[in-house]
Amino acid sequence: ARMQTMIAQAGPVGMLYAKDQAALAATLCSGLPIAALDRIAPAPLEISPLAPDAAAYVMFTSGSTGTPKGILGRNKSLNHFLNWQITEFGFDATTTTAQLAPVTFDVSLRDILAPLAAGGTVTVPPRQTILAPRDLLAWLNANQVTALHCVPSLLRLLITEMHHNPDLRPARLRHLFLAGEPLLGRMVKDWRATAGDICEVINFYGPSETTLAKVFGR
After folding, report:
1. Torsion angles phi and psi, residue 184, rounded to 5
2. I want to staple 97 with a disulfide (CB 3.0 to 4.6 A). Which of 49, 74, 108, 115 is the partner?
């Protein structure tokens, strides 16, 4: 029902689906063109320039009021934020981010697009890895992740794990971005006590309506 509500609001012209979701796609998009991701033949990519006010994406709120609300992100706003993050934090070809957020959450836009626009790399951990702090820390090290975005509650689990296993500190990490929940000063102190000064800690704040973030502290 939630998906049907979102599709009705967004008014898509078609759907791409994973091969194991064919039945769901057909049910949700009756009358719309649908295509399986694994069946799309490689072809030269033609990109038309987008106008500043052109739609770049639609994200939906959790629906706490009863109905998910679609938020339209415009090209100029997304472009502005990405350019700012790349410049502010020195993203370049050596930057490697971890995409922990699902693509249904606007945070994923900066995890994916900022490093790629700077010539860097995006890494995506298996779902079960995200749910296991020890495995996630080992994965961050194995993939030489330099920029990590997470919520403070996940950071607390990582701090606890590193306290018991100091060798799991993500040695290549340069930027730790936090958002989505209140970040308390004592948590930053705990991180410093456990991880040392391996990276800069940045706290983001901003509702989805304002394109990813509007206030930050470092």
Report:
1. -90, 150
2. 115
Q: What predicted TM-score, i.e. pTM, was given to this entire model?
A: 0.88
Contact 208, 181 (CB under 8 A): no
How does pLDDT run across 137-154, given as a tens digit for each residue?
Answer: 999 999 999 999 999 999
Q: Residue 32: how many CA atoms within 13 Å on its side-chain side?
A: 18
C-beta of residue 66 within 8 angstroms of C-beta of residue 98: no
The Cα–Cα gap between 176 and 187 comes to: 13
Q: 110: which residues sit within 8 A by CB, 6+ positions away?
A: 81, 82, 85, 149, 212, 213
213 pLDDT band (50/70/90 cuts)? confident
DSSP code for 25: H
Number of other residues whose CB lies within 10 A of the CB of residue 159? 18
